[in-house]
ABC-2 type transporter transmembrane domain-containing protein
Amino acid sequence: MREGALARWLGVGVTASRIGFREFAAFYTWRTWVFGWFLRLVTQVVFFSAVGSLSGSGERVRYLAVGNASVIVCVEALVVITTTVRERDQGTLALQVAAPTDFAVTYLFRGAYCLLIGIVSGTLVYALATVFFSLPAPVPRVLCVPFFLGVIGASAYGWGTFIGAWVLRRPGMQWLVLNLSYLSMMAFCGVNVPTGYWPSGITFAAELLPLTHGLRALRALLAGSPASAVLPELGTEALIGAFWLMAGVAALRWAIAGERRRGTIELSA
């Protein structure tokens, strides 16, 4: 019975993922994505890395390039914040809630394209930054970059799910909240300055956010540190991501239950 339920949920998840990718393909062509959105991401990393080059420190350039390439996967993954509002706007939220499968399954899988595209984007941007700024690329360690970005992105995806549940009641704030979320990560999670640069309260909060520990693990990996220095940080990032994902699913279910009680599960309501 459990195997049958798992297979059904997996089938629904795969279908939801395909729908998400089709929506993405309908919104972007390869030209608009490459010369529009992706170029914007490359410009961001090049800008901050170029600022580091003004200091004349190769270490500073490397620090900024790795940090800003890593945050890209978070920027992409946090687009999931807008998913609940989009579902209400399109009138599909009520249909998914009425379906026999848990809505959280379709929600998480339908936005999975954000995470996967973020991994691809982050990897490509890091590769370009490596070429532009002659960054060291230790083989085979550099081949693990997509995996590390995947862990970071999954952690951010869980956090975005949690935030998206709260944005459900305030659809007009979705883009403001999205931008504040990733800008906060850029500022406080060690992307451009170490986390210790900030007051102790902010430093403590940053330790509980996605990206912080995963970025440390990635920096340690590329610096040639032993596994004893890399894996604990990567494991902590995965645990933080799991926590935010569980919190996000719980908040999403609570928010949907509230919308059903109020009869406002669609924006038109």
User: Anything to note?
Assistant: Residues 2-262 form one domain.
